[in-house]
Design goal:
The complex is a heterotrimer.
Chain A: H1 5-8, H2 20-36, E1 44-46, E2 49-51, H3 53-76, H4 84-101, H5 106-129, H6 135-153, E3 159-160, H7 167-175, E4 177-178, E5 181-182, H8 183-201, H9 204-213, H10 215-220, H11 225-251, E6 253-254, H12 263-273, H13 285-304, H14 313-327, H15 329-340
Antiparallel strand pairs in A: 1-2, 3-6, 4-5
Helix pairs in contact in A: 2-13, 3-8, 3-11, 3-12, 3-13, 4-5, 4-6, 4-11, 5-6, 5-11, 7-11, 9-11, 12-13
Chain B: H1 9-28, H2 35-60, H3 68-84, H4 90-114, H5 119-137, E1 142-143, H6 147-154, E2 156-159, E3 162-165, H7 166-184, H8 186-196, H9 198-203, H10 208-234, E4 236-237, H11 245-255, H12 267-286, H13 291-312
Antiparallel strand pairs in B: 1-4, 2-3
Chain C: E1 7-18, E2 21-32, E3 36-40, H1 47-54, E4 62-67, E5 70-71, H2 77-83, E6 85-88, H3 100-105, H4 119-132, H5 148-161, E7 166-170, H6 178-193, E8 197-201, H7 205-211, E9 214-219, E10 222-228, H8 234-242, E11 270-277, E12 281-288, E13 293-297, H9 304-312, E14 319-324, E15 327-328, H10 334-339, E16 342-345, H11 349-353, H12 360-371, H13 380-394, H14 410-422, E17 428-432, H15 440-455, E18 459-463, H16 467-473, E19 476-481, E20 484-489, H17 502-510
Helix pairs in contact in C: 8-17, 12-13, 12-14, 13-14
Classes of the chains: A mainly alpha, B mainly alpha, C alpha/beta.
Chain lengths: 354, 315, 514
């Protein structure tokens, strides 16, 4: 009932862009690094390619960015996709198995992997739209069984793709350089730009926001929410597939147990911190990408400080919880009251039902 | 005919699935229907069963807790470290672990209720935190060598040609206790009412806030207890224990006929779900196929039961 | 029969202000033991707010509430229950998946010596309470297995088990059939005879006259008055509820609303035959011709909105046929209705109408955009042009086209909604309460717009509780009562009929044709 559009507007009438807080967080983190770890900003050039912590953030963050882009549209429709981590594993396993056990080559392998990922997204979409199962529950199923499926495809083990089979193409996808930058960055950047163009230059973005913000009114406008929702889950599957391919290409091993493990939370976090509310509606792809990069910067910073990678989830969880709390309507209205003191909340319209 | 009402159908389906699975396996494999297998069914998964009991309470109340695997993992290494490296008496270590688990659960429950945040999000963050803390304690496995510990883990009751171990007894005692609480206490009924319709429960004057926090606290307690059961079974603690277990636990509860949207379900159902889970793993072991088949089968069963619930849901 | 003794519940000068709306403005209300007191009023009258203040959902701003001579101020519905005020809402607040008995006694279950719930006693107590109401059923069964009527009986039983002195029934009969209503009334009579004070909120005039002892009417947050039921004529009651002004304006018609029958082409825009939806509106016939303004009159809950929803395809019909432009339609949906040139401004703007998070521009182009292929979007320039045109034409007050609609006033939100549909250039536009909650100036503008549309050959279906508006704008008015079309006022075809004015409509709303 109480749309927080009015709450966001502060006294000056200035409304921060959705990505504002993510950018602020990123800037703060970089500032800390500027003073504490000066080497963080060093960029070396070797063989015409760039190297350094910052490049590393973008390179390793590519997977998170891809997942965040898919997740943004899902969250914008008022849903959530918990299965992306499992889909990453499935896609990696499919590509690796096609490469190592058949003669079809890299193109077919990648196509098969993406097809599997898109299929997984379609399953989620069908459960949610046609069978009207809640998104959390529907995607939980694939989250549970997806790892089993990936393991089954991979034959109960991690599949190493030997260099002679891995074709230069796959290696290039994970470790190659384009314009001096690691190729995953290019993939993520291209997907981001293409998605942004499609979403904002066609009516897709408007339809997604409309369905997420008010499903009933959208239906009254003749919008087919089934198609819209199905599409975003398929797209999230596709993004997870791309992430799976990069993950495989990066390390040359398909690990059905650990590939993409817990990456769904990272993606949801990136979306939230990027200014898209879990309740759906207005979304910001740019914000989600910055959110994903913020998370990767945090991780890289922690590693640089010598925090073991296994312990890193602790600060991550704290940051995530803080961001969630800031989105909580209870805390927001409390903060609002505290900050405004005794000022009357004049602009807020509360509907008085008779 | 009243027993074959809508509400009982999932439970009947669960019982039928269990009978079919166990019957078919007994026909296919020699020695499947034996006291050894049945004893194994319980003792290998007792910790999962204990956790499933806690999860049943949470799901009955209309919530979900994704942090259980991480809390179990944390408890195993926490208890092992306290006993082995800090030389705590096991009794003290267990008490501390149970308190930590309960408080952790209560904190998550309070965050969910008072800040009106989605349960899956808060407990997902809880998962990260607990898993990270487990590695913070120690990064490798810690063995437990302690007389009291060995004494307790050795407690057993004869059963056929084999025996029932301590963790199984723990699971069964907890099962009976929680079933009684659910059926014969105002708290147990309030949990069901809140899961059925939180708004109505509030209007009916039930203590919603207190009950919801208590639900997550109980689940935290159960997770810690499950972690202790795991150390008793394995005589060690390890921060990587029980990764991904939350999904198995949720599957067991839902296959047991408890509605994921809350308000309907039973502990008997969870026991049946637990037995189906164990039987599927035993079958993959007897048939000598990979565990991935078991995971996929459980996922498929989970989907089937969610669909069944969807069809039976009142309009 | 009620003896008008000392009132058990006394409300004095109750005031409740919501931001922007004065929901209750100095309302007095008295309730005596052993009476059924009907509380009546249209949307926005303040009935719900009064009940919510009484049951502790909202705090009151000022005024006094006395129960049995004691001033009370409950802070929650359960606190009100504890004081003896029980409420049964239309959407019965019970737990469907628990047993009937538990629903009656939840929170106060009897316990045995060791503190465990004593199920045997619980079932006995529940059965006894229901027997007091003359209801017999298996209290061990899940509530979900019973009908909504039974659920209401159970909710009443819960109130009685709590020793309620005051029972508030908030639109209990809206979803009941005739037999169930009779049963409910039997129960109400039984309780009245036992000395229970009952507040009965309903829209159905017949039921008010069947069961109630006194009637209190609210309008726009103010008390209109309280009358013994026997002393209040039906027509007067409707007049009090709708608030008629002196009928001197009725001659002033807006624009050329009265379309001469010669101008009506033979082919209707829509033609409904036996169209109906179970539990919502009885089968009805309705034809709407181009350039016609057809009014739908009736009280709240009479089925007037439901007719609009069925024609637009927002609700699916369970019986009957609908022809649009001469072709019978199947699987009717908003999508198809929009493609066929039908537009719908819903009663609940916030729920089914505007999308508050989106901007004025986006809200205006939304229907237009969804009708086009996603790969042929309107360019931003075109969107701005369309939005700008309608913002200017309708006089929408907004700082920019990118302002979020949620921050606009009600009247401007309504205009944005109108702009959305006008941009579609519809053949038929359904306006459900287009003037509710908006200021007088905006109201006149919308009435003029209706006249302009009509002159341009667009058919308009105007649903309104403002009889004055209907009389002024419409070429013909169809009247609904108790979810049925009961009469039509059509000056062009029926010369013997009274003129199309407020009092004629009001008579039809109030009375049977006997």
């Amino acid at each position: 009932m109480t749309q927080d559009v009015n709450l966001k507007k502060n006294r000056l009438g200035w409304q921060p862009p959705p990505a504002f807080y993510a950018l602020l967080g990123l800037a703060a983190l970089l500032l800390v690094n500027w003073f504490c770890i000066p080497s963080f900003f060093e960029i070396q050039v070797r063989d015409g390619n760039f190297y350094g912590s910052l490049i590393d953030v973008f390179n390793r963050g590519a997977i998170g960015v891809l997942l965040a882009i898919g997740m943004t549209l899902v969250v914008a429709t008022g849903g959530v996709d918990l299965s992306v981590g499992s889909v990453v594993a499935i896609c990696g396993a499919v590509v690796a198995i096609v490469l190592t056990t058949t003669q079809f080559g890299i193109v077919v392998a990648i196509a098969a992997g993406l097809l599997a990922a898109v299929g997984a997204g379609a399953v989620n979409g069908i459960l949610i739209t046609w069978l009207r199962i809640e998104p959390i529950i529907a995607t939980l199923v694939l989250m549970v069984s997806g790892r089993g499926i990936a393991k089954y495809i991979a034959g109960e083990q991690t599949v190493a793709v030997p260099p002679e089979l891995a074709s230069p193409t796959l290696d290039f996808l994970g470790n190659g350089h384009f314009l001096g930058l690691p190729f995953p960055i290019t993939i993520a950047a291209v997907l981001f730009v293409v998605t942004l163009l499609v979403v904002r230059r066609t009516s897709v973005g408007l339809l997604v926001e409309s369905v997420g913000a008010n499903p009933s009114a959208s239906r009254a406008c003749g919008i087919n929410d089934t198609v819209v929702k199905l599409t975003v889950y398929v797209f999230a599957g596709f993004c997870a597939g791309l992430a799976g391919i990069i993950d495989l290409a990066n390390i040359g091993i398909a690990d059905p147990t650990n590939a993409g493990a817990l990456s769904e939370l990272d993606a949801i976090f990136a979306v939230l911190v990027g200014g898209t509310a879990l309740t759906g509606g207005r979304f910001s792809l740019t914000g989600a990408v910055i959110g994903a990069l913020l998370l990767q910067t945090l991780m890289t910073t922690l590693y640089t400080w010598g925090v073991p990678s296994d312990v890193a989830p602790v600060p991550k969880a704290i940051v995530i919880l803080l961001v969630c709390l800031l989105q909580s309507p209870t805390l927001r209205s409390w903060l609002e009251r505290t900050l405004r003191g005794n000022r009357k909340m004049g602009s807020r319209q509360v509907e008085a039902s008779s | 005919m009243s027993f074959i009402a809508r509400g009982n159908l999932p439970l009947l389906a669960t019982a039928a699935v269990l009978a079919a699975l166990f019957g078919a396996a007994s026909l296919c494999f020699d020695n499947f229907c034996s006291s050894y297998v049945i004893s194994d069914l319980f003792s290998q998964n007792a910790f999962l069963g204990i956790s499933a009991l806690g999860m049943t309470v949470v799901i009955l109340s209309g919530g979900i807790d994704l942090s259980v695997g991480a809390v179990i993992g944390f408890t195993t290494i926490f208890v092992a470290t306290l006993i082995t490296q800090c030389e705590f008496s096991p009794w003290l270590a267990w008490t501390v672990a149970l308190i930590v688990g309960t408080v952790y659960g209560a904190a998550m429950g309070a965050t969910i209720h008072f800040f009106k945040l989605p349960a899956f999000l808060v407990t997902l963050a809880g998962l990260f935190f607990a898993r990270g803390m487990a590695f913070f304690v120690t990064q490798q496995s810690v063995q437990i060598r302690n007389d009291v510990h060995e004494l307790v883990s050795g407690v057993a009751i004869p059963f056929g040609q084999t025996e029932i171990g301590f963790t199984t007894i723990l699971f069964l005692v907890l099962l009976v206790t929680m079933a009684c609480v659910s059926n014969f206490s105002t708290f147990g009924r309030a949990v069901l009412a809140i899961g059925g319709d939180e708004e109505s429960a509030t209007l009916m004057g039930l203590p919603v806030a207190r009950t919801k926090v208590a639900v997550y606290a109980i689940n935290g307690f159960c997770s810690a207890l499950a972690g202790i059961a795991m150390t008793l079974y394995m005589d060690s603690g390890n921060p990587i224990n029980a990764i991904g277990l939350e999904l198995d636990v949720i599957a067991v509860v839902v296959i047991g006929g408890t509605l994921l949207s809350g308000g309907v379900g039973s502990f008997t159902g969870t026991l049946l779900g637990f037995l189906i889970y164990g039987t599927i793993y035993q079958i993959t072991y007897f048939a000598n196929v990979g565990s991935s088949i078991a995971t996929i089968a459980i996922g498929a069963l989970l989907l089937a039961f969610i669909l069944l619930q969807q069809i039976l849901a009142p309009r | 029969m009620p003896t008008l003794t000392k009132p058990i519940l006394k409300i004095h000068n109750l005031r409740k202000q919501f931001p922007g709306v004065l929901a209750l403005d100095g309302v007095d209300f008295e309730l005596t033991a052993g009476e059924v007191h009907a509380l009546m009023g249209e949307n926005g009258a303040g009935k719900s707010t009064l009940i919510k203040v009484l049951t502790g959902v909202h705090p009151r701003d000022s005024g006094r509430v006395e129960l049995d001579g004691q001033t009370i101020a409950p802070t929650s519905p359960s606190a009100a229950e504890g004081l003896g005020i029980s409420t049964v809402f239309q959407e019965v607040n019970l737990i469907p998946r628990l047993s009937v008995a538990e629903n009656i006694l939840l929170g106060r279950q009897p316990k045995n010596a060791i503190g465990a719930i004593d199920w045997k006693t619980l079932y006995q107590m529940a059965t006894q309470t229901l027997t007091r109401l003359g209801v017999e059923l298996d209290v061990r069964k899940q509530l979900a297995e019973y009908s909504i009527a039974i659920a209401q009986m159970v909710a009443i039983a819960r109130g009685i088990a709590l020793d309620a002195k005051v029972l508030i029934l908030d639109e209990p009969t809206s979803s009941l059939d005739e037999k169930e209503v009779t049963h409910l009334f039997t129960v109400m009579e039984r309780l009245r005879n036992e000395g229970m004070a009952i507040v009965f909120v309903t829209h159905f005039l017949d039921q008010v006259y069947r069961i109630s002892d006194r009637i209190t009417v609210l309008r726009n947050g103010r008390l209109v008055g309280t009358w013994p039921t026997g002393e209040l004529e039906r027509l007067d009651l409707v007049e009090h509820m709708l608030g008629r002004k002196v009928p001197q304006l009725s001659a002033q018609r807006v624009g050329s609303a009265a379309v001469p029958s010669s101008k009506i082409s033979a082919k209707p825009v829509v033609k409904a035959q036996g169209l109906g939806r179970r539990g919502s509106v009885h089968p009805f016939d309705l034809e709407i011709f181009p350039g016609e303004v057809v009014g739908l009159a009736g009280l709240l809950g009479s089925g007037r909105s439901e007719v609009g929803r069925l024609i637009f395809g927002f609700d699916s019909a369970t019986t009957g046929t609908l022809e649009v432009g001469g072709n019978q339609v199947v699987n009717w949906s908003p999508r198809k209705a929009i493609d066929a040139g039908i537009a719908w401004c819903p009663e609940d703007r916030k729920l089914d109408g505007v999308i508050p998070q989106l901007s004025v521009r986006e809200n205006i182009v939304l229907a237009l955009q969804s009708a086009r292929s996603i790969f042929h979007p309107l360019s931003r320039a075109k969107q701005n042009e369309i939005a700008q045109r309608y913002v200017a034409q309708l006089g929408i007050k907004t700082t920019s086209l990118e302002t979020t609609v949620g921050t606009l006033s009600g009247g401007n939100q309504q205009k944005v909604l109108l702009a959305r549909w006008l941009a579609m250039e519809p053949k038929l536009i359904i306006l459900d309460e287009p003037t509710r909650g908006i200021d007088v100036g905006a109201k006149a503008e919308i009435e003029n717009l209706v006249a302009e549309l009509s002159a341009a050959g667009v058919a308009v279906l105007l649903i309104s509780s403002e009889l004055e508006d209907l009389a002024r704008c419409c070429s013909r008015v169809v009247v609904l009562r108790d979810r049925r079309i009961v009469a039509a006022l059509d000056p062009s075809s029926d010369l013997e009929q009274n003129a199309l004015d407020e009092s004629a409509i009001m008579k039809l709303i109030a009375h049977h044709n006997d």
